[in-house]
Amino acid sequence: MTKSEGEIPSLPQEIMEDILSRLPAKYIAQFRCVSNPWRTLLSDQQFINTHLSNRHTKENLILISPNQSLYTITNLAVSRKLTFQPELSDTWTEVVGSCNGLVLLENEEEDKFLVNPTTLKQVKIRDSPLALNKRESFWMHGFGYDVLSDDYKIVTLSYYDPEDVHSDTFVDVYSVKRGVWRRLDPSPYNHSFPDLSPGAFVNGSIHWLATSSKSGYTSVIAAFDLVDEKFKEIPAPGCLDEKVFVFNKLVTFAGRLCLIDETQDNVRFDVWIMEEYGVEKSWVKFSVVLNNDWERVKLLCFTGDEEVVLLIDEERLVVYNLKGGTSRDLIVDGVPALFIEGGTFVESLASTGLGDCIGVQHFGWKWRMMKM
């Protein structure tokens, strides 16, 4: 056999790229060290986008323990602890939002950190220098992806009076790609935002609960489109009433817009999901009935087996079976039994960008197995 006969033939470039785009992100990170051409290919934004669309990965959990340590849980079977560098608050850190594998965190001092738990990279992002004075105003944030400009954006709304629809609302937008804040031109937004919860990103828009003067001072869902950077209103389920800002929360759940209605009692709550975006009749409801009283509940994710994962009272992780109405605590071996905050993310190669940040940092992790 000649040398040429014994050589392994090389694959065409397009086939090689297709194979690589279907591999887990952790392997792609290793392959970047093979050669400079591979590093260039695997760091290309088009490849990163193709990899994300090909993988269709399930949602993973990102959790914050009382001592402000970060953990991720995959498939409810394996967890890893992140040795995380940001100056997380000693008392409180919030998951503002998650999109395409990037997670935006904010601590009690309102420092923001954009992290990718898969690639183990993160950046600190300064607050908008254009927003109103924090001591004299109210702020709310949202995070999402602008598909037209291929850019991730943070949106900050600041205003003086959350109850007054005539109070000026100032909108500042941060571009992760460019690393800069900018103020949108003044506009009559016709909305007030009494609920200061983070916005829910779905279908290219960030959504908040609001009161609309345009709709007769009723409770509405206000959606900020990240492409044209304008507000619109989304049809809401019938449970949205004058008690909305006390008992209702708007979240992203399984990639859909979701409204949690807590007006029932401290045992049961209803979950409304918009199955077809923008279609009022597509809202469907399911109920969760727990054995014990609770004060706060956060809906995290579906498991794919007619079960949902909940964070109860900023303490316990609970898996609830929708069909049988049963629940069980989610116990993780070797990690804290309590978690004060949580969210979801998908595995991706998305870049945290450089932009107007303080120190691009890396963080490590340790594997731990989880007992059910």
UniProtKB/TrEMBL annotation:
Tree of life domain: Eukaryota
UniProt domain F-box: residue ranges: 5-51
CDD domains from the UniProt entry: F-box_AtFBW1-like
InterPro entries for the chain: F-box-assoc_dom_typ3, F-box-assoc_interact_dom, F-box-like_dom_sf, F-box_dom, SCF_F-box_component
SUPFAM superfamilies to which the protein is assigned, alphabetical: F-box domain
PROSITE patterns assigned to the protein according to its UniProt record, in alphabetical order: FBOX
Pfam families per UniProt: F-box, FBA_3
UniProt xrefs under PANTHER family: BNACNNG10540D PROTEIN, F-BOX PROTEIN CPR30-LIKE
Cited NCBIfam families: F_box_assoc_1
Identification of the protein by name: F-box/kelch-repeat protein
The species this protein was found in: Abeliophyllum distichum
